Predict the 3D structure of the following.
Amino acid sequence: MSPDVDQAMEQVDTDIRAEINTVLPGSDPLQNLHVTHEGGHEYNVLSARNGSVTKHYVTVGETPTCTCEDYQYNRDGQEVCAHIAAAVLGDRMDPGEMATQELINVTTTVSSAIREAEGAAAEARDAADQIESALVKTRDAQAEETVETERNGHSDTSGGSNDAEIEAKAEKLQEAYDAVIDGMAVEYANGAIWVNITPQAPEELPGPGSISTFNALLRDADQINYSPDDQSAPGQYFKNRIDPSDVESYISEVLE
């Protein structure tokens, strides 16, 4: 049997006498109120009042509240409206019914949370894909730049080093010629060293047999290559080429 209004109000230390006269007449004034439990201490109360139906939001607990004007503006102390009284009585519904309603509320909340989590996860995956794509492009660009830098660096370094070595060997060969005979010209170009006899050079080398300078220093030397059509020569008169690696042996065999 449902408890009467006075008994219910005594349990929450409230008084509903003022509200009783505002609802439609009947054997039980609260019959005109329909309560829906939203979850926890929250209720929606439909009220058939003054020939119309209104909806109020009620919370129960240590300090019950209601959104109706009667509660907001006309209540003093611990007095409450009939909507709160109906919610308090509704709070005494069958435990099985309350459990079902709570399960529905919890399920709805969890489903909503899952949908939000899935949406957030999808956005996170999209962001991660974009970041990964950007990183791949950056790594590829850096790799290409590194390869290009190394290529240029090796080219510049090796080229500069070779040029310096060739020039040094050309100077050494010129010094070796000058120690033996005047009029020998040495140039380096395109990775090789070129030798030419100038008009200042004697036609024959001094010594027994008057050895021809051209034959002794150029034609008969194993290290000298006669290349009259080589376009890489430093000039049209330079037709005798010697590889830089053969300079040392040429000096030791021919000029010393």
In short: The longest strand covers residues 42-49. Confidence is low (pLDDT under 50) at residues 8-27, 154-159.
